[in-house]
Amino acid sequence: MVASARSRDLFGQPRGLSVLFLTQMWEIFSYYGMRSLLVYYMTKQLLLGQQQASLVYGVYTATVYFTPIIGGVISDRWLGRRRAVIIGASIMAFGHFLMASESLFYFALAAIALGNGLFLPSLPSQIDGLYAKDDPRRGSAYNVYYVGINVGGLLAPLVCGTLGELYGWHYGFGAAGIGMVAGLLIYVLGARHLPEEGLHPTRKDTAATPAVALQRHELWQRLRVLVAIALTVMLFRGAYEQVGNTIALWADTGINRTLAGSMLGGFVIPMTWFQSLNPLLVIVLTPLFVAHWTRQARHGREPAPARKMAMGAIGVACAYLMLAAVSASTPAGQASWIWLALFFLVLTSGELFILPIGLGLFARLAPAGHGATTIAAWFSATFGGSLLAGLLGTYWSVLGPSSFFVLMGAVGIAAGVLLWLLDRPTRRVEAVAQLPAAATIAAPTTP
Question: What does pTM read for this prediction?
Answer without folding.
Answer: 0.74
